[in-house]
Design a protein that fits this description.
Strand order of the largest sheet: 1-2-8-7-6-5-4-3
CATH topology of the largest domain: Alpha-D-Glucose-1,6-Bisphosphate, Chain A, domain 4
Radius of gyration: 22 Å
Helix content: 25-40%
């Protein structure tokens, strides 16, 4: 598991907010120095700093971003926020079989511990129902935003999701052509921000291991019998 936070140089403030911060900070700093109010001076200097650098430490702690999205604008979780998971497994099934099974999204609930159900809708959209490790249930809509038949399925949550998330799964044939290397990458941002304790509360003490167990469940299911519900 990789917990991603703003780096100390990351811009997380909107340009207008930065300009206001510089102006207000400059005025407050001048007034503080003129009246020998050092508290005002320090506060003014901090406002100038956050405006010039575009980085607010309070936003960092809360997982908030007002800056326009740059890199990562096509996903639900800004690239410098959230929690990222990644795991790879080899399954003794051809890529087309594994792809078709995964593409029938309702099958995800059969091997993913936290997924209660996934209901497919029109336009590559789906409705997800997930139960966290703490017992709380969340629902959201997602869309498949990138797809290559038998190779890739990528998705992202839509606005209003209780947990902003995005992910992808790659299906790569093994050298002998009889198996599939499945690579899953997921990124999500809990409402309280990228905090280790929050992640543990929601997804368990070891989210990476949970993802690994989920993929092992997929492997057992596909290798023990012919794929079912592949559409």
């Amino acid at each position: 598991m990789q917990i991603i936070t703003h780096s100390k140089h990351a811009v997380n403030m909107h340009p207008v907010e930065r300009a206001v911060s510089v102006i207000a900070g400059g005025l407050l700093f001048g007034a503080g120095i003129g009246s020998r109010s050092y508290g005002r001076g320090v506060l003014g200097a901090e406002l100038v700093r956050r405006g010039v650098t575009g980085h607010c430490y309070a936003y960092e702690a809360l997982g908030v971003r007002t800056a326009p999205l740059g890199q990562g604008q096509n996903i639900s979780v800004p690239y410098e926020l959230g929690v990222r998971l990644g795991r790879t497994i080899v399954i003794d099934r051809r890529p087309d079989e594994v792809y078709r099974f995964w593409r029938h999204l309702s099958n995800l609930a059969t091997f993913m511990k936290h997924v209660v159900s996934v209901q497919e809708m029109e336009g590559k959209r789906s409705h997800w129902k997930v139960k966290t490790n703490s017992g709380r249930t969340f629902e959201w809509d997602a869309v498949i935003n990138n797809e290559l038949t038998n190779e890739l399925i990528a998705w992202r949550s839509l606005p209003g999701a209780g947990i902003d998330n995005a992910g992808s799964v790659w299906f790569k044939p093994t050298p002998d052509g009889r198996g599939t290397e499945v690579r899953v990458e997921m990124q999500f941002n809990p409402p309280a921000g990228a905090v280790g304790a929050t992640v543990a509360k929601w997804w368990g003490d070891d989210p990476d291991r949970q993802l690994e167990e989920d993929l092992n469940g997929l492997k057992r299911q596909l290798e023990s019998r012919a794929p079912v519900n592949v559409g």
